[in-house]
Design goal:
The protein is 2% helix and 47% strand. The chain has 448 residues and is mainly beta.
């Protein structure tokens, strides 16, 4: 909540920190302290109360305000909200869960109660909970007025699909409007007392920059019953830049092609004895938007537990291969490997998908001086290894920098090493009459 949200409409700024006395209609005279209020978003957060329509309740008079931010632990997302209410909103509590994001999206398995604020009045209502691939991305609150006091009186939440992790502990969500949840199915199913004036619905959203990182609430006394505490006002903390607008919401593997024929002709035929892999197609989403020009950077590391081949220095298999930086769209129809000057075709996606895609290569070769074939059969050099074995790499991508950086993945690239033989051929796949079959290690790759 900003520095002057609650009393500026009726009191001059110089009186915000003063003690004032009001005569409450129908009640004895009571003295209350009016406090200067200022919210404190965390690093990389903004308070929606600083923008028009970003606060529900608390624009008129209030008594003994106390601010708090309802948030989940770092790495968790707000996936639901529970309320108590009578004629006004008495209590708000968030539900937290830990989403796990991979190449197939983000999901959480179990929610747990989180921070709460308010009093014990009103009635409990059915909890509002997002689906397990969603989190809270906005709220809609009914605002009512009793004489000179306005209150948040009821609450619904918007749930949006989680598309990935953003900067810090924030999450990115789909930018289209999400699904709305209300304890009774809608505001129209609740009735207001005759002495309550409805001031309308306040719709507040974080969706454009990410999921809700906290619900900022102002707990105050009711003007009717002193020391009965209610949630008189609320706003949202949102990521200030959950992602650069030029960065996609998500990246997915939309295809992969093995080019064994090219490996045979351009590697094994030149003396190589270990080789193989795939060219994968990465697609930026949502596909309806043009992401051409977005700059993507990759990071790759070895999953040490996956090295069932016991290959020495296996971490070298998980390098970036000189293709650490990518640009979405405009990649042509091939990719040139820095090893042996091999050119691999890229099956360019049809239609508009081409503008939202880029190729990434994942190959293993026995490399010698000058990036030429070393003539080393990887499995043949490992005593006792007779069957297929694997090495896996964990890959992530990033777009943007600093507070605006968006990350994608992790993706898993699994290389399977297997024994094979190679027969040199002439054009037309005619075996060379003088060339015998040679033992090689064929490398297959899968990316998920």
């Amino acid at each position: 909540m900003p520095d002057r949200p609650f009393l500026a409409c009726l009191l001059a700024p110089a009186l915000l920190a003063a003690a004032v006395t009001w005569s409450l209609p129908g009640a004895a005279s009571a003295q209350r302290t009016v406090q200067t209020l200022q919210s404190r978003p965390g690093p990389g957060e903004v308070d929606t109360a600083n923008r028009p329509g970003g606060q529900a309740g608390g624009r008129r008079l209030g008594v003994n305000y106390e601010l708090s931010a309802l948030r989940c632990p770092a790495g968790d997302a707000i996936v639901g909200v529970g309320i108590r209410r009578g004629n006004v909103l008495d209590r708000v509590q968030v539900a937290c869960a830990t989403p796990v994001c991979d190449a197939n999206g983000c999901r959480w398995t179990a929610s747990r109660p989180g921070a709460a604020a308010g009093g014990g009045g009103g009635d409990a209502h059915p909890a509002m909970t997002c689906a397990q691939d969603e989190m809270v991305s906005g709220v809609r609150a009914r605002v009512v007025r009793f004489t000179q006091f306005d209150y948040a009186a009821d609450l619904a939440i918007e749930c949006s699909r989680i598309t990935g992790r953003g900067a810090r502990s924030f999450f990115r969500v789909a930018r289209e409007e999400g699904r709305w949840h209300h304890p009774e199915g809608g505001f129209g199913r609740t009735r207001l007392p005759a002495n309550v004036v409805e001031e309308g619905l306040a719709t507040i959203a974080c969706r454009a920059t990410g999921g809700v990182s906290a619900i900022s609430v102002a707990v105050a006394d009711t003007f009717v019953l002193p020391r009965q505490r209610v949630v008189q006002a609320l706003s949202l903390y949102c990521p200030d830049a959950g992602g650069d607008p030029s960065c996609p919401d998500s990246l997915v593997v939309s295809g992969a092609t093995a080019h064994d024929d090219i490996v045979d002709r351009q590697w094994f035929a030149r003396g190589g004895r270990t080789g193989g892999g795939i060219v994968s197609t990465m697609e930026a989403r949502p596909a309806a938007r043009n992401w051409s020009g977005a700059r993507i950077v990759e990071t790759v590391r070895l999953d040490a537990a996956s090295n069932t081949c016991a290959i020495p220095n296996a971490a070298a298999l998980c390098g970036t291969g000189g293709h650490r930086n990518f640009t979405v769209g405009g990649q042509g129809n091939s990719i040139r490997l820095p090893i042996g000057n091999i050119e691999m075709p890229w099956n360019v996606p049809a239609g508009g998908q081409a503008r939202n895609s880029f190729p990434d290569s994942h190959f293993v070769f026995d490399v010698g001086p000058g990036n030429q074939p070393a003539g080393r059969d990887a499995l043949g050099a490992l005593p006792g290894v007779t069957g297929p074995c694997t090495v896996a790499c964990v890959q992530t991508y990033a777009c943007g920098a600093g507070a605006q950086q968006v990350t994608y993945g992790p993706f898993r690239i699994t290389y399977t090493f297997r024994r094979d033989t190679f027969q040199p051929t002439l054009p037309g796949l005619i075996p060379l009459p003088t060339g015998g079959r040679t033992d090689i290690t064929r490398v297959d790759a899968v990316k998920r």
